[in-house]
UniProtKB/TrEMBL annotation:
PANTHER family: ALPHA-AMYLASE FAMILY MEMBER (PTHR10357), MALTODEXTRIN GLUCOSIDASE (PTHR10357:SF210)
Keywords, ordered alphabetically: Glycosidase, Hydrolase
Gene Ontology, cellular component aspect: cytoplasm
Domain Glycosyl hydrolase family 13 catalytic per the UniProt entry, residue ranges: 127-530
Superkingdom per UniProt: Bacteria
Stored InterPro entries: GH, GH13_cat_dom, Glyco_hydro_13_lg-like_dom, Glyco_hydro_b, Ig_E-set, Malt_amylase-like_C, MalZ
Organism, as annotated: Photobacterium profundum 3TCK
Record-given protein name: Putative maltodextrin glucosidase
Gene Ontology BP annotations: carbohydrate metabolic process
NCBIfam families attached to this UniProt entry: PRK10785.1 (NF008051)
Length: 621
């Protein structure tokens, strides 16, 4: 069934809020005979249809305008468009056009109450796993046999920079390579050369493992990484350079070595005893034990990571509710961090099963915003997370479901479990749209998009070290809706299999070569384009083409159009682009990376893409 061309963007060119209403614009093809268009909304949970008025025509586009009330009794205003054409109707929604009314999950969404910080969408994040990035102070590095993990089971092992890491079933978590905060601080010039504007650090608080998701002290930097003073100095330097920093918060669980739990009776700092093996301990209710036994709930069934009990008022006060709760502490001077990434936030709560999770996530958000209203609140979710992303809980999520998963399926033919998963460009677009349209627009822009991370196989390894394929995916990362984040070492083509092989040491020798790896300069170009383009940071998205192994989309504002063209096939393809759908009938398309140009004629342009080629184009008169 051929559907008519209908489109509604969600940036300020298409959607303008007033105190109590939304002024809305959409377009249709002037050749489509339309008798009426209605905005459908539910101001009192009942359908309201509002007539839209015809506006100007531009090229082949007919503009339509209307005004709908902002919901006063709930945060989210849902709306969609009902289009009457002769004896039939069409519905325009967040996933496209259909012949019947869509479900609520496909409606456009506007949140008038809770909006992410405006600075987030302007950033290029860079994720660092501290132990593997740079060692500037070997004197504080963990030494072999310095201490034990898991009682006396796993002695620490100091490894030479660049050695392979063992898997987690053997000595993996107890192997250290010596990366530290001073090493990160010393490389800020390098990161600025690349173009990075924000750092995301994996956990840096005191913990026995190298990954530090097993906290023993939330108020101090791990001494093998540095000091609180060093951290404050680094943040001050970042802010002086107009850069941001996000820390990893692990509040769902602690280490068994945390003084509150103290499984191995190592706490000699005070006279209290830990919860393990002591039913009368002050901290017994901080965790989730079965009666007076030593049975307790561990994160994901892992016994070394006992879950905190958030029904306990002392836990609430310590983590978020108290005046100097941990969440607030690091947002205040002298640290002044800009963002929190909350680890496994969806699993946190009361008892087994994350009871009252939404209440606690909202409380985390409120605690952070009470200190810094511009704090970016990011949640870790490996799968669909729209319940947490309606504005009153998280500003954004690590966008595995809505970005990383579909791109891996398209470019690497694998799913998150590394099982075979083949999709074509049309299915890719359906997946991206379905995930994105569940969220209010500003939360879409604040999703943290990554190709890979400390929890996944490196993307370059997933595509069998094919840098051409990786470059295509990187282009999409910097052109698509959301905030891009680069995992350390991507720019020097660092490979890595599944965790912990994906946490290899940064090969600094590659940056000292006369010719850096090609990906370094390619990333520099993409970052520079992203930082200079309002359309790529906050513009609406419009698909122009999607079939087989090639697709094209545009990011647009009132004054700027940027097109992303991708050919993932093994042969050259001619892409016929209907740029009239953008309101463009003539002019040229200019390549932002090479300065090549293509002429637009009567609202259309044909461009030949070589095998594994991508283009970023802008419209010029």
């Amino acid at each position: 069934m051929k559907t008519p061309f209908l489109y509604h963007g969600q940036d300020s060119a298409w959607l303008t809020p007033t105190e109590s209403t939304l002024n809305v614009t959409m377009v249709s093809d002037i050749d489509t005979l339309i008798s009426a268009i209605f905005i459908r909304c539910e101001p009192d949970n009942e359908e309201l249809l509002i007539d839209m008025e015809r506006g100007k025509t531009q090229g082949r586009l007919q503009y339509w305008h209307g005004e709908l009330p902002i919901n006063s009794d709930k945060d989210i205003t849902f709306y969609t468009f009902k289009v009457m054409q002769n004896s039939r109707q069409w519905w325009l929604h967040g996933c496209g056009v259909s012949p019947r009314v869509p479900g609520k999950e496909k409606h456009f969404k506007f949140n008038n109450q809770h909006q992410p910080p405006t600075w987030v969408k302007e950033q290029v994040f860079y994720q660092v796993f501290p132990d593997r990035f740079s060692n500037a102070n070997p004197s504080i590095s963990v030494q072999s046999n310095e201490y034990y993990l898991r009682g006396t089971e796993k002695p620490t092992i100091a490894k030479a920079w660049g050695e392979s890491a063992s898997n987690h079933d053997s000595s993996g978590p107890s192997e250290f390579f010596g990366g530290d905060l001073q090493g990160i601080h010393n490389k800020i010039d390098y990161l600025q050369e690349l173009g990075v504007t924000a750092l995301y650090l994996n956990p840096i608080f005191t913990a026995p493992s190298n990954h530090k998701y097993d906290t023993t002290d939330y108020l101090n930097i791990d001494p093998h990484l540095g000091t609180n003073e060093q951290f404050a100095d680094m943040v001050a330097d970042l802010h002086q350079r107009n850069m941001k920093i996000m820390l990893d918060a692990v509040y769902n669980h602690t280490s068994v070595d945390h003084p509150w739990f103290d499984m191995y009776q190592r706490n000699t700092a005070d006279q209290t005893v830990g919860a393990y093996d002591h039913p009368n301990s002050t901290y017994r209710q901080y965790y989730q034990f079965t009666d007076n036994s030593n049975e307790y709930i561990g994160w994901n069934g892992i016994s070394t990571l006992p879950k905190l009990n958030f029904s306990n008022p002392e836990v609430q006060d310590y983590i978020y509710a108290g005046d100097d709760a941990v969440i607030k502490h690091w947002l205040k001077p002298p640290y002044n961090i800009d963002a929190w990434r909350f680890d496994v936030i969806h699993m946190l709560g009361e008892g087994k099963g994350a009871r009252n999770n939404a209440h606690f996530v909202k409380s985390f958000r409120n605690a952070a915003k009470s200190v810094n209203p511009d704090c970016y609140v990011l949640g870790e979710h490996f799968f669909e997370a729209s319940n947490w992303l309606q504005g009153d809980q998280e500003d954004g999520a690590m966008n595995y479901y809505g970005f990383a998963h579909p791109l891996r399926a398209f470019f690497a033919q694998k799913d998150i479990a590394y099982h075979a998963c083949q999709i074509d460009a049309e299915e890719l677009v359906e997946w991206l749209d379905e995930a994105r349209t569940k969220l209010p627009w500003l939360n879409q822009l604040s999703q943290l998009n990554q190709l890979d991370s400390h929890d996944t196989m490196r993307f370059l390894t997933m595509v069998d070290n094919n840098t051409e394929t990786m470059h295509l995916a990187l282009m999409v990362l910097f052109a698509y809706v959301g905030t891009p984040c680069v995992y350390y070492g991507t720019e020097v083509e660092l490979q890595g299999g599944q965790d912990p092989d994906n946490r290899r040491c940064f090969p600094w020798e590659r940056t000292e070569q006369e010719q850096k790896p090609q990906t370094f300069s390619y990333l520099q170009q993409l970052i520079a384009v992203r930082k200079s383009s309002t359309a790529l940071q906050s513009g609406s998205v419009q698909w122009l083409l999607a079939e087989n192994q090639h697709f094209a989309f545009a990011r647009t504002t009132e004054t700027e159009h940027v097109l992303c063209l991708i050919n993932n096939s093994e042969s050259a393809k001619i892409l016929h682009l209907p740029v009239w759908q953008l309101g463009i009938e003539s002019g040229s398309l200019h390549d932002l990376l090479t300065d090549d140009e293509w002429h637009i004629s009567e609202g259309s342009v044909s461009i030949t893409l070589a095998s594994k080629e991508g283009l970023l184009l802008t419209v010029s008169e």
